[in-house]
Design brief:
Blueprint lengths: L8 H14 L3 H22 L2 H5 L17 H13 L1
Length: 85
């Protein structure tokens, strides 16, 4: 597959510098960078499940309401009505 991208001039300058230092073609550098990004994205996506992101917060605070998870809507509506009174 062939792809054309636009990038800031400073990226092009840095890629050219890396190409000269390593002997790699610019396209090789772009492929390596994309490969690394995709691998990190896949790994991060697997790690970033909502529970894993909030795991350290689960069970940290106690509301004192035993059925808050099951009846949260009722508790919220009751709280709103209490504030109106």
């Amino acid at each position: 597959m062939q792809m054309t991208i636009r990038m800031p001039d400073e990226y092009e300058a840095k890629i050219r510098e890396i190409s000269e230092k390593t002997g790699l073609r610019k396209s090789d550098i772009a492929r390596l960078a994309l490969k690394k990004f995709l691998e990190e994205f896949d790994h991060q996506e697997l790690q970033e499940r909502p529970f894993k992101r909030a795991r350290d917060l689960v069970g940290v605070v106690s509301s004192g309401i035993y059925d808050l998870g099951a009846n949260h809507r009722r508790h919220v509506l009751n709280r709103i009505q209490e504030q109106k009174s």
